[in-house]
Design goal:
Distance between the termini: 84 Å
Oligomer: single chain
Order of helices and strands: EEHEEEHHHHHEEEEHEE
Number of helices: 7
Strand order of the largest sheet: 2-1-5
């Protein structure tokens, strides 16, 4: 029989060669749950000490046995106290030896503090991700979830941002348009158009691109108009293009005597 000692708590356990071979010496301490290699901490089992009688001093050359043998209360084969402690711990070691197959199959649980730290870090990362998503899609959220708008406004107050109006070009169309010379002002062209927002929510006003073409439909001059350049006077651009609404525009363009014979008109969001 051999003894092995846990390097963490110094508890000794009794092991057999068969138990050591089961997992190449890998065992778990039943006292502190530390996993260690029992082959590296093997010790020889101490022999059981035998009790010896203590003789009294001789009288007149005669040796007499003592009236009572020492340690009479203890069984003759009982180990000394220190060895008895080792034996009790060895008994615990035997049960651990039987469970050697479970050491690799069931690893010890991670400390509770580490699990709490990982959980807190995961929740923090999730919270940061939610805030980032809310910041990126704040305009869409404000439209699709109006009840979230106060919360989004508070968030933008902290991040020093604003909530822009949606810009869905597929919901904005040019219903009608016309370009003709001004009868009273030479070299000026009059552009009239009707824009419609078919979305059920307000949107930002689009940009307009006007291209004058020649008789072969080749571009002669191109001009991009920001909302502030074509909106009628007094229009609140910050309020946006109301949902399911139309907007009539009326502009004068200086053609510079180019003699344009056609035009193209597009809208877009930059």
């Amino acid at each position: 029989m051999m003894l092995t000692r846990c390097p963490t708590c110094s508890t000794a356990f009794r092991v057999t060669p068969e138990q050591l071979k089961a997992r190449a010496g890998k065992v778990r301490c039943g006292h502190c749950n530390a996993v260690f290699n029992a082959l590296e901490t093997l010790e020889d089992a101490p022999p059981v000490a035998q009790a010896k009688a203590v003789l009294p001093p001789a009288e007149d050359g005669v040796t007499e046995p003592p009236s009572e043998p020492p340690h009479a209360d203890a069984p003759p084969d009982a180990p000394p106290p220190a060895l008895q402690a080792e034996a009790e711990k060895s008994a615990e070691g035997e049960s651990i030896g039987i469970l050697l197959e479970e050491i690799d199959a069931t690893p010890p649980r991670a400390p509770r503090g580490r699990l709490i730290a990982w959980s807190a870090a995961a929740l923090l990362a999730l919270g940061v991700l939610v805030v980032q998503a809310a910041h990126v899609f704040r305009a869409e959220l404000a439209v699709s979830q109006p009840e979230l708008r106060p919360l989004l406004e508070d968030l933008c107050g902290l991040l020093e941002c604003d909530i822009p109006l949606p810009r869905k070009a597929e919901f904005v169309s040019i219903e009608a348009s016309d370009l003709h010379p001004d009868a009273q002002k030479k070299n000026l062209l009059v552009l009239t158009a009707t824009l419609k927002n078919r979305a059920p929510f307000a949107q930002g006003y689009p940009f307009l691109e006007v291209t004058l073409t020649d008789t072969g439909d080749q571009a002669m001059v191109r001009k991009v108009l920001a909302p502030a350049e074509y909106l009628p006077e007094g229009t609140d651009a910050q309020a946006g293009f109301a949902g399911n609404a139309e907007l009539a525009i009326h502009l004068w363009l200086d053609a510079g005597g180019l003699g344009a014979s056609g035009y193209r008109l597009y809208l877009f969001y930059p």
